């Protein structure tokens, strides 16, 4: 059982009496007035530390979770940023490939037009053998 | 043994603690107030600023589609180019230095380049850092890139109106239409440039400056340029592109480029995203994305080889007779496909501004004429369809001089007595057809003219098509019936006439002309296939057979003998119409035409040739008919149309290397 550090663990179990116990200045421990070390007044120091230890652990765990989340978020963002860069590079490459393809198409069309524009060839089809029509 | 600490009085400790608490409270209050100020009071303003910084909307320009001929040859295509800009924030205070470095790379003069940048800097308010880099391509191009009709050569320094001072230009356009490979070499040269700095001992600030100079002295934006590899071929049909006002980089202004602009342009992509401090897009932040859709590929029914044959034939007649214009259209009657459509003078779609706008005009569809005798075929079809004449029936042609209702009609230099209806067509007797028109009657003739579609555009997907002109019979003077019957007092376009002849060739069914064969997606897959579209039946098949028979007589022993094609039966009709200025005839000016069908019995081609104002000694039979023959003798070979008559003595045929009809030549040779 974990006891609350600020909860009185004396013989009185009545909550009402506990309330008055803590709020009645007459019932306050004497060492507060005397300015004495409280560890000497309320049990041994090791026991006091043990009372706070679970809470310290909880706080540390929470802190670790926060740090872990932040680090993970940073790492995640870095990963996303890296992937963004990859996407950008891939898109740039795709664009360049398309540009090259379109330039190649234009060159091909230009060559085809040049061929098409060459002077006509005069032939006499009636004296031309059939196999001569296979144009290379 | 430790010495006990001196204990302080309790009151002092409490005071110190209270002070500390008070300080902390004050600090927290300040922080809280600042948070409230930022998060609540200035929330809207700061949110807007943050969005401005982070969010970016990128427009990806669609790629304008190609236009291809029926064989897939690219008639118009888009080429990627770069527009090169100078970032003024980098050029400030070092214009001469940068101009001397950049000018050789761009192949321009350093002084003029520096002057241009100076002018831009003078018109610019305090430099706005690197706004140009952040400005989207579309915005920047919209501000800086007026593209006049007729793009200047790629290697010239672009002359453009400088932006006004209010525009605060962050960059100035130095050169337009740079090839991507050239731009890459420019980038590489700039990456090696030291800009007068000693690179072996640079401070960090100088290194940053050098990096900035190398990166931003010049930068380029993607642009597109339309390329027409076949030059003036099919220019009036293809049209041209010009300054875009629709969000695209190119916009059609004439011809198919204009009428099919929506299909060719495609749809721009939109990508909303975020960017980092350097302006790089963060792809994972893309929120809304509209994918880019490239423009469709338009496949025409036109056969480029045939088109070039037509253009060469027209060029010859233009060189010989120097007419105002010459035009020709070839239609496949069974489907209405337009296989060639040419008009001279032409222009270069690449540089339309270099030619006078008169050359842009597509005379086949945009001009309407009193076509004269070629219209007699329509009158004959109406008469035969209504049974008011037969081909053999004799008509008295008044020996070439006939006065009807005090109006005299003449047959030029001919004094025919009785002619059969067939001969009236073969000899092109005006008097004979005026009498046939009277037999048909005004209302019936008018209805036939409407049935053949002369009163409305044919709905070819080209801009500025004329719809013809024909008055209602109620508005006709008493003599009009004799004039309309011979192709006067009405005006039709050459395409309307060709489609009417195509109806006669097609057994009486009028087809809608088909110029676009199919639409393909940008990847080449089929999107829409355009099939033949019958409009209506205008005459019976028997009537068309009789009309074709009479038209055949025109070529065999009539006015169109120069159109005769060895090995093939040809049916046709000549036309020589005196031109008028709208009120009276202009002496010595004629519109000569010939429309023919080949082969005559089962026509596979309708070829309409028109030569406008070839001189005062020219006739349709002497000017246009030979052009028809020249075109037809190539067309039958190219399209693989078999001869339907006895073999004729060999004569040389002219072929192009890529004639698609080579197999049929084998049959022809045998």
Model description:
- The complex is a heterodimer of chains A (136) and B (670).
- With 136 residues, chain A is mainly alpha-helical.
- Chain B is an alpha+beta fold.
- Chain B folds into 2 domains: 212 residues, Penicillin-binding protein 2a (Domain 2); 317 residues, DD-peptidase/beta-lactamase superfamily (Beta-lactamase, 3-Layer(aba) Sandwich).
- Helices cover 37% and strands 23% of the residues of chain B.
- In chain B, helix 4 packs across helix 5, helix 15 crosses helix 18 and helix 15 crosses helix 21.
- The C terminus of chain B is likely disordered.
- Chains A and B meet through helix 4 and strand 1 of A and strand 3, strand 9, helix 13, strand 28 and helix 23 of B.
- Strand 1 of chain A pairs antiparallel with strand 28 of chain B.
Which blocks of ≥5 consecutive residues of chain B have pLDDT under 50? 126-168, 653-670
Indicate the CATH topology of the largest domain in chain B: Beta-lactamase
Number of helices of chain B: 23
Main β-sheet of chain B: number of strands, strand sense, barrel status? 7 strands, mixed
Question: Which homologous superfamily in CATH is the superfamily of the largest domain in chain B?
Answer: DD-peptidase/beta-lactamase superfamily
Regarding CATH, which class of the largest domain in chain B?
Alpha Beta
CATH architecture of the largest domain in chain B: 3-Layer(aba) Sandwich
Q: Indicate the multimeric state.
A: heterodimer
Helix content of chain A: 55-70%
Distance between the termini of chain B: 131 Å
Q: How many structural units, i.e. domains of chain B?
A: 2
Count of strand segments of chain B: 28
